[in-house]
Amino acid sequence: MSNSVSRQIVLGIGNPERGDDAAGRKVARLLLQMAPDNVEVTEHDGEATALLARLDGAAAAYLIDACQSGAPAGTVYRFDVSAAALPQGLGGLSTHGFGLAEAVELARALGKLPARCIVYAIEGECFDLGAPLTPPASAAVAKVVQRLGSEIIDDMEPGRKPRCTNPT
Amino acid sequence: MARRTIKVDYLARVEGEGGLKVVVRDGKVASAELNIFEPPRFFEAFLRGRAFNEAPDITARICGICPVAYQMSAVHAMENALGITVTGSLRDLRRLIYCGEWIESHALHIYMLHAPDFLGYEGAIDMARDHGDVVRRGLSLKQAGNEIVTLLGGREIHPINVRIGGFYRAPRKRELAPLAEKLKWARDAALETVRWSSSLDFPERERDYTFVALRHGKEYPFNEGRISSNRGLDIAAAEYDDHFEETHVERSTALHSRFKGGGTYLTGPLARYNLNFDCLSPLAQDAAREAGLERNCSNPYRSIVVRAVEVLYACDEALRIISAYEEPDRPAVPVEPCAGSGYGATEAPRGLLYHHYRLESDGLIAQARIVPPTSQNQASIEEDLASYIGDFLDLPDDELRHRCEQTVRNYDPCISCSAHFLRLDLDRG
């Protein structure tokens, strides 16, 4: 694990058994194959207090989650939450009403929010138990892997290429 | 006729989806209803036809906050059906993992869900801006509970190491040592939590509750004990259905529990405390007294202090178990399926959790019944609203609504757990 000054984390958030809610986890799984060794890439269930613990001490955090905003399925949002809260109405899935948006704001209130904190949200359309990713969400996953992979590399060393640019 | 309706469409800071409606007519509370519209879960039906040894893992999925409680009630009910008793270190490990769940669940509720009500914040985020150190303490305390569940259960949510007869793997003694160091800090933090929570401003409201909880007599109850009340009830789990019944009310996908013949009751920390104060550790008893709690407490708003006392007890008990731990010869006692009926009741963080299973001779589940604590507390929650809110009617709507929500949150309701049944009347013409 890299030290806290330069620690960078990627968290793919969601429930792997609930259709498009797995989109964030799928992005993390694919990024794991191409991310530089010093970037921690993990999947997460999204429980806010545990998320907060993961954010603590990171210099940069890239979070990917599914959302339900009413936009067409597969729509990809990118938010820089380093300075501003996530917009309301994304309809994140959480327990106790405590999910990603709350974890970010709690981290901010406690002074634990990484200096750079980027959230990618993928609009889902089916969250049924045991359902696979829908085609629009799958296409969005590939898009986010590409964009986020490049963004992480650019943030670290502008101009450097990721190890792999063709996620499988 | 003057009519005023206080309606909360979506209750915040509770687990699951529910709302409430209080109707005031001519200055009096005419009705108070807790509406639970979380879709029914059908877990009892899922269990039918599954193998007996799948019950702990299937029922753990009912709740992400209290999966250990579901696993424990399931294993005890199954062992009751199969004629098995788990003793010694394996029994102690079950108490230890339950300590972990109480610590994480109670810390979450005390600091993140309930404290904002007392301090006048919309939620934990607002509270954290002004009380950062307090919230950090709560989060670290919760983390200590998570670590117990992770070590014994394999992961912090929906543990995978619990089985009928014991565990799939028992921890080595040396694995528990680092946990003990963390728990010593947690015990100090829990003591501070008792003191801090006792300084909050509590509405002075009491009712003559019937408290129902397990009572073991020698230990504060997690897994074992007789179902008891402050009015003389003293029964085995197998007799539960002789004394309690569930009914469906239109406003709720969760069944309402009552005593047969009528009468509501309260289960959870307040009931456990009232029936088992003598079984708390000396440290927890002293902290309770210092916090101004008597041996009996009938003010549900003080349940936040009682939860803190239970967190302190759970830290103390966890340290005692770790200190005395001897590695068992085997991680589980062997089990063979047979036909039978089994009953189990354990103390989930929110209260009594009853399971009943009927098994076929090949070990397949023929029938399953699960009664979670929030189902049992629904009627009491509504009675609290009807009894207490009348004194707050002078408040503006926003403040009155807040007081109603605080009153519901006294119970730390877990609506996802309780919504498990919907009666279907099929009219085929």
TrEMBL record, chain A:
SUPFAM superfamilies reported for this sequence: HybD-like
InterPro entries per the UniProt record, alphabetical: Pept_HybD-like_dom_sf (IPR023430), Peptidase_A31 (IPR000671)
Swiss-Prot/TrEMBL keywords: Aspartyl protease, Hydrolase, Protease
Superkingdom to which the source organism belongs: Bacteria
Presence of the UniProt keyword Oxidoreductase in the record: no
Pfam families on file: HycI
Keyword Protease: yes
Cross-referenced NCBIfam families: hydrog_prot (TIGR00072)
Family note: Belongs to the peptidase A31 family.
Protein name listed in UniProt: Membrane protein
From TrEMBL, chain B:
Keywords (A to Z) from UniProt: Oxidoreductase
InterPro entries per UniProt: Ni-dep_hyd_lsu (IPR001501), Ni-dep_hyd_lsu_Ni_BS (IPR018194), NiFe-Hase_large (IPR029014)
Domain of life of the native organism: Bacteria
Gene3D superfamilies with a match to the protein in the record: Cytochrome-c3 Hydrogenase, chain B
One Pfam family this sequence matches: NiFeSe_Hases
Classification via PANTHER family: COENZYME F420 HYDROGENASE, SUBUNIT ALPHA (PTHR43600), CYTOSOLIC NIFE-HYDROGENASE, ALPHA SUBUNIT (PTHR43600:SF4)
The name this protein goes by in its record: Ni/Fe hydrogenase subunit alpha
Source organism of this protein record: Novosphingobium indicum
